[in-house]
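#structure-requests
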Amino acid sequence: MTESTVQDTALRAKRVSLQDCLQKFSVPETLCEDNSWYCSRCKELRQAVKTIQVWSLPEVLILHFKRFSHAGPNRGKVELFVDFPINGLDMSPYCRGETLEGGRPMSALYDLFAVSNHMGGMGHGHYTAFVRDWEGSGMSQDWHVCDDHDCRPVPEARVRTAHAYVLFYRRRPLA
């Protein structure tokens, strides 16, 4: 998530969805003029189109929000609420690579298992984490908040906040 992506989409509403961020991140970008691409074959700056896509999906997907702006009048912390799914994040629209793993279909669905939060500003702050319990066969529906030496149960409804900084997803196994 870049500053311009966030500002273009959501500063008016002070919220944006994770899917909107991923979609904007993967939109083709024309490189020209001051931002031209250098062609090593012809040794010249050329207009080009840059596209970002995921080639293969990891078992654990970590998404980091750029929460600090260092440019222009909006210098400081970006206090935007990013609405992210707890279960069923579908990464297939952002993938280009193979959808098979060992000849079997590969899941592109992810379930959240932890969130790192940052409260405070650019020069100071405090970190907390929401973590999901593990059962013998996988994740449970129970969440805890970890804050320094304290760890206590928390309702799932409290996991989504404007303080989310890093999201940790685990790929859902195929049934």
